[in-house]
Write a structure and sequence with these properties.
The chain folds into three domains: 87 residues, no CATH class; 72 residues, Immunoglobulin-like (Sandwich); 83 residues. It contains eight helices and ten strands. A hairpin with a 7-residue loop joins β2 and β3. α1 packs parallel to α2, α2 runs antiparallel to α3 and α3 packs antiparallel against α4. The radius of gyration is 45 Å and the shape is rod-shaped. It starts with a helix and ends with a strand. The N terminus is likely disordered.
């Protein structure tokens, strides 16, 4: 007999305490494997608790032992007794799933397997329910994480769902995501309806910068400066007309001064126009408050 099988023999004896409580004693296996020694201790305690009808305590010890006996001959027996504890605790959904997990692990044609099948048939009506999910918006997608990550199309129906609580998430482009928690009762139908809320396109408020008044003020100042040079230029020409000019050089000097004053005036007008334009743009582009745009059957609705 292989060494591992000899080491697991006492564990099988310990599980017999759970499967059919009797006056039996499990011995620590003659092995250096600390995991097996721990497993034996857990299973021996589980047998005692099961005989004392402390099914919750027995369940906890069995779950502590299960990972230590994985891939061994004892593992199916541990799973079977986990299902028995859940059955005794009147948790039909969990017991149903646990019996199924036992059958997936063991294909031996024995009494224990027959009992598991009988328990599944007995628990079916109390352990299984159905979903009926409806959505007000077409093309809504739903996800039920407890089942899997599959994206399903709404409306959606599913039978033979293990009883329990499920979170159902719904999403559709242009609408707010939402989720509902629903409880599926054994033998019942859980009906869920989604009516999603449209998203509003919110345009962030634009802050009107205080510097716009600086641009406008500078534009007005440049305009006033231009007017001043314009008036000064014409005053220069008027004074020249009233004054006797001695020679051509003196007249040319007066004309040069006039042209300079006129050029500065025109330049000031141009700068004033630019500065006033910038100030005007800053004034009209700034929007106080929040603007919300909502789609409607005939177009869009804008609220300020």
């Amino acid at each position: 007999m292989p060494i591992l099988r000899r080491a697991l023999m006492p564990l099988t004896l310990a599980m017999a305490l759970v499967a059919a409580p009797t006056e039996a004693t499990a011995q620590v296996p003659d092995s250096d494997d600390s995991g097996l020694r721990k497993a034996q201790a857990y299973l021996t305690l589980a047998g005692q608790l099961f005989r004392d009808k402390d099914y919750e305590g027995a369940l906890n010890e069995l779950r502590r032992a299960e990972p230590l006996v994985a891939n061994s001959d004892v593992h199916p027996v541990v799973r079977f007794n986990i299902a028995r504890c859940l059955d005794e605790l009147q948790r039909p959904g969990d017991a149903y799933r646990a019996y199924q997990r036992y059958l997936e692990l063991s294909d031996a044609a024995d009494t224990r397997r027959e009992k598991a099948r009988a328990a599944i048939d007995r628990l079916r009506s109390d352990a299984l329910g159905s979903f009926r999910i409806k959505c007000a918006q077409e093309r809504t997608s739903i996800v039920i994480p407890k089942l899997d990550d599959t994206v399903r199309s709404c409306p959606y129906e599913q039978d033979e769902v293990i009883a329990g609580e499920y979170v159902i998430a719904a999403a559709l482009q242009g609408y707010e995501d939402t989720a509902q928690t629903v409880r599926v009762e054994g033998g019942g139908v859980a009906e869920v309806s989604f009516d999603l809320v449209k998203l509003e396109v919110v345009i962030p408020p634009k802050t009107v910068s205080a510097t716009r008044w600086g641009w406008i003020g500078a534009g007005i100042g440049a305009g006033v400066l231009g007017i001043g040079f314009h008036v000064a230029g014409y005053q220069t020409m008027a004074d020249a007309d009233r004054t006797f000019v001695k020679d051509k050089a003196e007249r040319d000097g007066i004309l040069d001064e006039f042209r300079s004053q006129r050029a500065v005036a025109y330049g000031s007008y141009a700068v004033s126009a630019i500065l006033l334009g910038v100030g005007y743009y800053l004034s009209t582009s700034g929007v106080q408050g929040t603007t919300a745009v909502s789609p409607t059957p005939t177009g869009f609705q804008v609220r300020f």
